[in-house]
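[Q] Does anyone have a clean structure-token version of this?
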Amino acid sequence: MTATELAYSEGELPDPASVDDIEWAVRLLAATPTHEGRDRELLRQWACRAAEFGSRLGTGLAPVPSTARVVERDGGLERMLLARYTSRPPTVELYTDTLTLAEELVDARGWRAWYPPGSVRAAALAHEAVHAHLHHGPAKAALKQALGHTVLRLGRHRVAGHVAGAEEVAAHAYARTVCGLGRSPLLLTAALRAALTRPGTRPGREN
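[A] Here you go.
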């Protein structure tokens, strides 16, 4: 979950839960570089297809495997990061201070039914497992095909293009599905962003 994900909200809402998960995905894509001026309906189409792709990964016979080592550390609040995957060597950095804030925020917002105890950590690990899965295997090409974004046609053949941000949407949808969450982690990242950027308030506390 990157700094981009914690910065895509189009203005803070009193109740971010009033925005559905697909709309949060659309906002993530809209705030991703290269999508400036893109048609909103096209972004929604990509968001839906990426979410469906991620959900299908989560309904497989086994969860997406990950051999990356997990390193827990502080410093996520300053970086606006909950977790991130790096490929050399395969590592998931899990930021415990942001995890703590997320758990406080879930309680403060009354979202515990959607995000049971421990599920935020599990969702962060599941999310990063998908990044590793898409980085190392054929799934990246499969996601491109699922999105249907054509950048070149040669007769009957077409070349599927990359959609920036779609991998994030897919990873969130996978995490929601495999962890059995009531709402996508996209909602929680939006609320985290608001808490971390609201001036003069204690992050995670309702004033």
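[Q] Thanks! Anything notable?
[A] The helical segments are 21-30, 40-58, 76-79, 96-109, 119-136, 139-147, 166-179, 185-197.
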